[in-house]
TrEMBL record:
Species name: Aquibacillus rhizosphaerae
Pfam families to which the protein is assigned, alphabetical: DEAD, Helicase_C_2, RNase_T
The protein's name: 3'-5' exonuclease DinG
SMART domains referenced in this protein's UniProt entry, alphabetically: DEXDc, EXOIII, HELICc2
Domain of life: Bacteria
């Protein structure tokens, strides 16, 4: 049976049992890769079509008025499915709906093998950017003329199926065999297809030079390296920059829309000078400087000419991807010499083949998500050379599974292990040892500074991009985070004597283990430990809720935050917490004792394989004890400790944090004092053109540092209008609801002028939610598409894509939308800043830092609160203009920027732009005239 009937339905909603009906059917029949028949019909649903469905599909009530009912076409539709696979992009939806309608008109439901192209695409195209039909058609360059119309969607799904079956046919025998073992737990009925293909391979083996088969796994082989460029002599640095940055330069030939920028060359020269003079540098490069290229050129030149590696560290993986996919290829093309680049991340990012092999071949009954995850990784292994999980998208519980099979979970890998030479993590470390340029993230950089084990190869020169994040990242890494879910995850990954658990498998394989865990009553201690953990976290939840409201801050994602200050806690309750912590620590020590006994038995019997695994489990339990003791049993004024709870979440949804109040000394000792040259760069490092704030926070104040602010090449005075209303209610006097109402009215008035295309930045999640609800109430029916962080579902990048996809959209965002969101061109015409981004004074970290500054005779507002707010404000302002042709309005609802003494610090810290301070009506008129 090689006939595939691809079906797509357009419907009035998602739930036929609640009265939703089919409005269009599209069917495409595929046979041996050829489309042999198409069928399409509108259907009269005998009910109104909701407006959002009409917007999505273009199908109106009048279109279906004279169309046949489903009953009239049902027999003709059933006929098309004879002797075939049923295929759909999300088969549970389309087939479920179709069968409901068939049974509704007295016909039998279809009952044939099915293929779900969403599931198959997830498995067979693991590196696709997304799995919606539109995303896949773009990724595979499949023509999709009429999205959300049934026949067009069915046609594209048929083309997608053809690609997927072709991919399946190019997989080796071993991979297909593993898929077959797991096939019955998938939605798609692949058995017949896999059977036939495996039988073919028995007679005609697949020839693939790019794969190696090892212990039943097909792995991608590294390709041959290209010949090195022949270099007679390396140009001087000045000559090299001339070739890059003069008019008609080589850059303009290879980069689309390349614009010559004076600041780019200036920045490259500054970095080269700081490397050569072994000095540290602070460089603020405003938007449009082209700083990535500006620092990559001196970094690579320095490495090649001085034969020493240079490190580049970024905050976001998004920027690492941009460097590797966009800038590095340009430089590989243009530089007259060869260089090598390695990207290195923390161990938790890389797959452990050793662990994955054990999980894959274990006979446990996996749930759907775990089965899907295993199949995704299996195919990905035939494609990846890095084993970096960021290359693929896993289902939600697949991410937990990946923690079990990441390099981080395997401890130190034995060089004698058969997997050592194939370890992705070892491969990336070896590559990094030989590389000129190492790209990493702040998080790994900070871990490496204080780690006993060297995570990065030794280096003396480093460029830290997005450097305004270095302080917060360092604090996180020199601190700790502990939560209930993580403790339970560690306990569950060791498990009990239940079938399929790790300790149970160990017990079944080794009689000495069975004896030890029976003698020591492992299950009792393990169960008691889980109960103790649960009780502690539930008590902490209640403790935070019971505190007087003024002591509890609410952060921008709606979590309550409570700062722990041992001396001022309610002693009776605090004693209860410390007693519970002590009991949990004792229980964990008992588990460690039992595991240590088992380990000793293995050492005597020389069972090498299991010793590392047991040591890794002991280490993870010991880390929980250390963290609990640091948080609750060791007073330390140099640390800030706090608890976060989900106010409406589970009663044990509690997160514990601890960070140093001041990281400047740690950074000075471990980074600036150790390295010859550290270059810190970002678009936002200064306040009122001064680097004093960042210099002191990072521990650079004692040193001689090169400092330079590089102006943006954009003409802000003609590209931006800054507007501040003088008639908004004052939030201070209990008028928050009035302020929110005024904000929402201004959003809708401005959106009329800008045709949507607005990003509204909030500092409070609570205010964002209130504004979203009010906008939906006061807006004419679906006049604008309102997308809100934390309310609309999806990640930040998904919300951004939805915003760009809709004609008239308004995007409401809090913290993470203030930076790193790039919406160029006409997609964004207006940024509204609701409140100046001061951190709430009761935020635990801010509170502790303020106290520390006061004790040192400093003013917390001027030294901490104001500079942080100004830098955040600059980031928000910087979202608007991303090219020399962009134009737009920055509308600030908070008139403290004009009235307060400190307001000028905000205005003086952004490029010079025309500022209008007037009543809202006049500002709207001005906006309309200007745009």
């Amino acid at each position: 049976m090689r006939k595939f009937v691809v079906v797509d339905l357009e419907t009035t909603g998602h739930t036929p049992s609640k009265g939703d009906r089919i409005i269009e059917i599209g069917i495409v029949i595929l046979h041996e890769g050829q489309i042999i028949k198409e069928y399409s019909s509108l259907i009269n649903p005998n009910t109104d079509i909701p407006s959002f469905i009409t917007n999505l599909t273009g199908i109106t009530d009048s279109d279906v008025k004279d169309a046949p009912s489903f009953k009239a076409v049902a027999n003709e539709v059933i006929e098309l499915f004879t002797d075939s696979y049923i295929v759909a992009h999300n088969i549970p939806f389309d087939l479920g709906f179709l069968n409901y309608e068939l049974e509704n008109v007295g016909l039998k439901a279809l009952n044939q093998p099915v293929l779900d192209t969403v599931e198959l695409a997830r498995i067979l195209l693991p590196q696709a950017p997304g799995f919606k039909l539109g995303q896949l058609s773009e990724y595979l360059s499949l023509q999709h003329d009429d999205p959300h119309r049934a026949l067009s969607d069915a046609y594209v799904t048929a083309k997608l199926l053809d690609v997927l079956l072709d991919k399946l046919n190019r997989l080796p025998y071993e991979t297909l065999h593993q898929l077959q073992v797991m096939e019955q737990r998938l939605k798609s009925d692949l058995d017949g297809i896999l059977d036939k293909r495996i039988e073919q391979l028995t007679f005609e083996p697949l020839e693939r030079d790019d794969l190696e088969i090892y212990r039943g796994l097909a792995l991608k082989k590294e390709g041959k390296h290209e010949q090195d460029k022949q270099v007679n002599e390396i140009l001087s640095y000045g000559e090299l920059l001339d070739s890059f940055f003069q008019s008609n330069s080589s850059l303009s030939e290879v980069m689309e829309n390349y614009e010559q920028r004076q600041g780019q060359r200036e920045m490259s020269e500054l970095i080269f000078d700081s490397f050569r003079s072994s000095q540290h540098a602070l460089i603020e490069a405003e938007t449009g400087t082209g700083k990535s290229l500006a620092y990559l050129i001196p970094a690579i030149y320095e490495s090649v000419t001085n034969k020493e590696r240079v490190v580049v560290s970024t905050h976001l993986t998004q920027l690492q991807t941009q460097l590797l996919d966009k800038e590095i290829p340009v430089l590989e093309q243009l530089l007259p010499f060869d260089f090598s680049v390695a990207l290195i991340k923390g161990k938790q990012h890389y797959l452990s083949l050793n662990k994955f092999e054990k999980e894959l071949f274990s006979s446990t009954q996996d749930n759907y998500d775990i089965t899907l995850t295993k199949t995704i990784i299996l195919i990905w292994l035939t494609e990846t050379l890095t084993g970096d999980i960021d290359e693929i998208q896993l289902p939600s519980s697949g991410k937990l599974f990946f923690r079990r099979v990441s390099t981080d979970s395997e401890g130190a890998i034995d060089p004698r292990s058969p997997w050592f030479t194939r370890s992705f993590y070892q491969r990336v470390r070896t590559k990094a040892q030989k590389a000129n340029l190492i790209i990493t993230n702040h998080s790994l950089l900070c871990t490496d500074l204080v780690s006993e084990y060297q995570l990065l190869p030794s280096y003396q020169k480093v460029i830290i991009d997005e450097a305004h994040h270095l302080e917060a990242t360092a604090a996180k890494h020199f601190g700790l985070k502990l939560d209930y879910i993580n403790i339970q995850f560690i306990l569950n990954s060791i498990g009990s004597l239940q079938e399929g658990d790790w300790i149970n498998k160990l017990s079944n394989n080794y009689p000495c283990v069975k004896e030890t865990i029976t003698d020591y009553k492992w299950d009792k201690w393990w169960q008691d430990t889980k109960i103790e953990a649960d009780e502690l976290f539930r008590y902490l939840f209640t403790y935070v809720i019971d505190q007087h409201k003024k002591d509890v801050a609410i952060n921008d994602i709606g979590r309550y935050q409570y700062r722990i200050d041992e001396e001022n806690e309610i002693q009776s309750k605090w004693n209860t917490i410390t007693e519970m912590v002590t009991r949990l620590s004792f229980n964990l020590r008992d588990l460690i004792h039992i595991l240590s006994t088992i380990k000793q038995d293995f050492v005597k019997q020389e069972v090498e394989d299991e010793i590392d695994e047991i040591q890794s489990m002991i280490g993870r339990l010991q880390m929980i004890i250390d963290d609990l003791e640091q948080l609750f049993l060791q007073p330390d004024h140099s640390q800030v400790k706090w608890v976060e709870i989900e106010a409406y979440g589970a009663k044990n949804a509690v997160y514990l944090f601890c960070e140093p109040v001041d990281v400047s000394k740690i950074l000075y000792e471990h980074l600036f004092n150790e390295k010859k040259s550290v270059v810190l760069t970002s678009a936002t490092l200064t306040m009122s053109k001064s680097f004093k704030f960042i210099r002191e926070r990072l521990g650079l104040s004692e040193l001689s540092v090169i400092e330079k602010k590089i102006e943006s090449p954009y003409t802000y005075d003609s590209q931006v209008q800054l507007m501040v209303p003088n008639d908004f209610p004052d939030v201070k006097y209990g008028k928050q609801d009035d302020f929110v109402y005024a904000t929402c009215e201004a959003i809708l008035s401005l959106a009329e002028i800008t045709n949507g295309r607005m990003l509204v930045l909030f500092t409070s999640y609570d205010m964002l939610r209130k504004s979203y609800t009010l906008l939906r109430e006061i807006m004419e029916q679906d006049e604008f598409m309102v997308i809100a962080q934390g309310v609309s579902s999806g990640s930040r990048s998904r919300l951004k894509k939805n915003f760009q996809a809709f004609e008239r959209a308004i995007l409401l965002g809090t913290s993470s939308f203030w930076e790193g969101v790039d919406i160029p061109g006409s997609d964004l015409s207006c940024i509204m800043i609701v409140r100046l981004p001061f951190q709430p004074p009761d935020h635990p970290i801010y509170e502790a830092k303020s106290q520390h500054l006061k004790e040192n005779g400093k003013n917390p507002f001027m030294e901490l609160s104001l500079p942080n707010a100004v830098i955040r404000f600059k980031q928000g302002f910087g979202r608007l203009i991303r090219s020399s042709t962009d134009r737009g309005i920055v509308f600030i609802c908070d008139d403290r920027i004009m009235k307060a003494r400190y307001g000028k610090f905000f205005i003086d810290s952004i490029p010079k732009v025309p500022v209008s301070y007037n009543n809202t009506q006049k500002l709207m008129q001005l906006a309309e005239d200007w745009l």
